[in-house]
Amino acid sequence: MGSRRLPETIAHVRITRQSWQQGRLEGEVRANQFEWQFRWCFTQGCLSVEPSLGRALIQEPLGRFLEKCDYQLEAGGDYSFTIRAEL
Known about the structure:
- By secondary structure, this protein is an alpha+beta fold.
- 17% of the residues lie in helices and 44% in strands.
- It has one helix spanning 55-69, and strands at residues 9-19, 24-31, 34-41, 46-50, 78-83.
């Protein structure tokens, strides 16, 4: 009886703009054939992701990643995290 592994997708994040004064991070995230732009206003806890295609798949895991790593993220930096789903 083997246990089935959950599907995994690696999401790649690039931070393009950061403003601690305005409480905002902006960047792009890629996973398989999808690519999105995001803006996270962390003082308000508001994350917007565009375009809408596939947004439901990435918004929650991206939000968790940003909340967990926010102070380590820098403009120009490349990061990645694992999504427990096949995108």
